[in-house]
Amino acid sequence: MTEYKNVLPYLKRKAVGTVAIFLRKDNRELFDDDAKLVAEELLMTNVGRNVYQLEDRELTVLSINKGQYNRVIRDLLLIQRRRVEVYEESGKEGFKLVQKGDLKNYDDFSSIVESCVELGELSTVMSVKISGQDGTEDNLVSVVLINPHDMRVTVAEFSDTKNFYYLSELIQNTTPRECFLFKGDSDERPEGYKALLMCMNRANLPSHNIDLPTSNVQALKKQFTSLFFKNDFFEPHVSKNVLAVASALATEMRLLPDYKEKFLLIEYQSAGHLHLDGAAVKALELLSLVNDMDDEPTRGVGTLYDYLNKCRSDPGRRLLRNWLRRPLSDRRQINERLDVVESLIESHGIRTDLSDKLLRQVPDIATIERRLLQKKATLVECYRLYRLIDLSKRFKATASDFYDEHAEEKGAAIKVVMLDPLQEIVNQFEPFMRVIEEFLDMDHVDETGEYRIIPSKDDELNECWKKMQIMEMDAETMMKNFAKKAGLTGLKLELADVGYVFRGTHKDEKSISKQDVQVVDVTKGGGIRFTTREVRKLSSQMEGVRSEYNEHQARLTAEVMEIAQEHTTKLAPLNDILAVIDVLVAFAVVAFHSSNDYVRPELLDKGTGVLELTECRHPVLEEKRSTEYIANDVMLHMRNGDERDTHFAVVTGANMGGKSTYLRSAGLTVIMAQMGCFVPCSKARFSILDSIHTRVGASDYQCNGVSTFMAEMVDCVAILDAAKSTSLVLVDELGRGTSTFDGFGMAWGVAKHILTEIDCFCLFATHYHEMSVLKEHFPERVINLKADTYVDANGDIVLLFKITEGLAERSFGINIAKSVDFPEPIIKDATHILNYLETNTWENAEVLDPLLPEYDEEPLNAAIQEIKRIYFEAEKNKANVSDVCAELLKVIPSNV
């Protein structure tokens, strides 16, 4: 395959971590290791993959189509985090590099990746400084996050626990791709720095050390404020630590001077939200964790985000991910959302109009905002913004009708959440709308797709436009004369980079070539394009006039852009309100179309001690199951609740009996309710919670040197560190990462601490049946629950998936193994060992001890007979007795 020879030099020069894509004619191709990577890890198919013999080597070639090309570029940058280079065939020169980029600099691929929901998350870089007395709870954390994709700088400063629980939560909420720490912290606070590194490891967040700037406060402040867009900018009150951290991070990212005055400032707020750390997000399977280094990507496997994501726009999808990480803990705000969702469920017409018509037209507002901030916007962005505001007016009209329908009952919530913000935004953009209508030629955009200033807005611009019109008419006349002379009927006039050209079909190519023409190009789908001598002369004149026209238009465009940029800071509220509407409509769609009932949760004041979830279901699993889902009740109460004081449930039962699902169902229901969504229950009534803490699963983090048991202990420390009386704690099989006795001891100790020190709601699933003894020590606080099972006459287990009060005396692990056709010898040995461990005797076993090596009984019987014979002749042959006894020891089991 000699056509691939000119590719080889580029493959030899390519860096190992770079993926190169070659564009040849209409083909998009990857070679060797790049082809293998894309075929096996991204496309997961060998279609289009071939191996050719080229000189003395084999060359693997993968051809991809246009749709696959966009997906491959996106996944290489966002998921694989590779550097990508695109080469285009360039005649005799071979190939030339036309595009390159990675996650830090993806400008060449912005049209492909900018619409991805995950890009904003993967673009955030964080820096953290700690201060205070080392080895104590006095941890002051200063954090700065910079996102060059969304053009946001987020600052935060707060006191934290010894193990940095609240920093872990911030990392989970903001999803930075890497973090910069400071060398001085490791010297000044060695214990705190060690705990900080552990926090980074738990979050799977790569960290690097940098130096803290030594400039004075005024210099730091000047550099900090130089980052921000000046319109509507107010000078923030931030500490010296935050200024220093921001300065160091901006220097490390080399933002200045290129990004001067292009960012917006946000102050991170944690108050008013339900606290969820990374362990809870992962254990409850809320989101696809694309940056989870130890696990395979979980996209598409059934997360709560996948289930709730009925959003129609990119802003809505981004907000839904944010709400999942940060549900509310303010009862008033939650009920406002629930009022709107309930009204949307009742108003079928409004919900349908919003979901199927209006929301589908919402563009990626963040892209428009970013281009305006970067001062890269053109008339295209102005037109899109104009259409967006026009769309917002339609949203406002729909919201007004929606309000009128529910004015008496839930109108107040609709007004606050939807109608008032839309009205304010429409009013704020009225000056912009008038300017666009005055300057931008809308009719011309609709007819030709070309964006321009209305020529009549400027005398000089209008004069140039009239000249161009006359020249176009002359070109039309020339085309007609040429067609008449050559006997052609299907010619078309076009304005290309080289000026005016005529386009003919392939069947006219022979007739055209006989004329005095210059061929521009011939394409399979486009036919033949050519010019004549007089057309080229006209094009030369046209070029001068068009250049003058563009100069005048650029001057007027700059005036329009200046007005558009004044409205940049108003785009964030517009983005927010449309995203809120999208997510609330998605909640209503989920509840309305669910196969089972969804109800509005009744929320009680924080601290009232009630958690009642009647017939609670797992929202994701029930949609995936082909059979009827078995719902279960969660009934926990504190002392000041309405009923008994049982708020700690020990859940035992068979493997696969539904214990983990029971825990997750409770956690997901609370999260959905505090997001403002209806919940999968027949009735839900509970007190607002502050936080959810989990210890679920037995994963490790080998790349960070964290074993399974260490991961368990890290999660437990976070629970003991941060859980409060208004928390919900979910613990599933704590202690299984170590020996039975050590594991039970840790499980007992943690459970007792939760009962006596934290005193919060807790569901504690375990296979340590001895944990049920907790009820004897705390009879009013602890309730024993079990996953019901039924064993038939053949010993086969039937899982009922029903959680009832009581104690499961067995885990039925061997029965589960038998049900999946485990080898019979293994089942038999396991049964024998289980009998021994439960009765402390081998009497019921078919062999003496299955833990010992197998032996043959015949040599044993023969040896016994030999002892009897020799015993009577002992005096005659003592040496023989010793030899036989030695042989006997080799065949007699030790317990005989």
- The CATH architecture classification of the largest domain is 3-Layer(aba) Sandwich
Strand order of the largest sheet: 13-23-24-25-21-26-27
What is the fourth-level CATH superfamily of the largest domain? P-loop containing nucleotide triphosphate hydrolases
**Gyration radius over CA:** 36 Å
Rounded mean pLDDT is: 83
User: What's the shape?
Assistant: globular
Regarding quaternary structure, what we see is single chain
Strand content range: 15-25%
Main sheet overview:
7 strands, mixed
Tell me the number of structural domains.
6
Distance between the termini: 76 Å
Summary tags:
896 residues; alpha/beta; MutS, DNA mismatch repair protein, domain I; Nucleotidyltransferase, domain 5; MutS, DNA mismatch repair protein, Chain A, domain 3; 6 domains; seven-stranded mixed β-sheet; six-stranded mixed β-sheet; 33 helices; 27 strands; 18% strand; globular; DNA-binding; mismatched DNA binding
Description:
With 896 residues, the chain is of the alpha/beta class. The chain has 6 domains: 2-113, MutS, DNA mismatch repair protein, domain I (3-Layer(aba) Sandwich); 123-270, 2-Layer Sandwich (Nucleotidyltransferase, domain 5), CATH 3.30.420; 309-429 and 567-591, MutS, DNA mismatch repair protein, Chain A, domain 3 (Orthogonal Bundle), CATH 1.10.1420; 455-565, MutS, DNA mismatch repair protein, Chain A, domain 3, CATH 1.10.1420.10; 595-816, P-loop containing nucleotide triphosphate hydrolases (Rossmann fold); 857-891. Helix content is 47%, strand content 18%. Strands 13-23-24-25-21-26-27 form a 7-stranded mixed beta sheet, with helices on both faces. The protein has a 6-stranded mixed beta sheet with strand order 3-4-2-1-5-6, covered by helices on one side. Strands 11-10-7-8-9-12 form a 6-stranded mixed beta sheet, with helices on both faces. Helix 9 crosses helix 10 (240-253), helix 15 (348-358) packs antiparallel against helix 17 and helix 32 packs antiparallel against helix 33 (878-891). Mean pLDDT is 83; it is low at 289-301 and 847-855. Belongs to the DNA mismatch repair MutS family. One of its GO terms (molecular function) is ATP binding. InterPro entries: DNA_mismatch_repair_Msh2, DNA_mismatch_repair_MutS-lik_N, DNA_mismatch_repair_MutS_C, DNA_mismatch_repair_MutS_clamp, DNA_mismatch_repair_MutS_core, DNA_mismatch_repair_MutS_N, DNA_mismatch_repair_MutS_sf, MutS. It comes from Panagrellus redivivus (Microworm). This is DNA_MISMATCH_REPAIR_2 domain-containing protein.
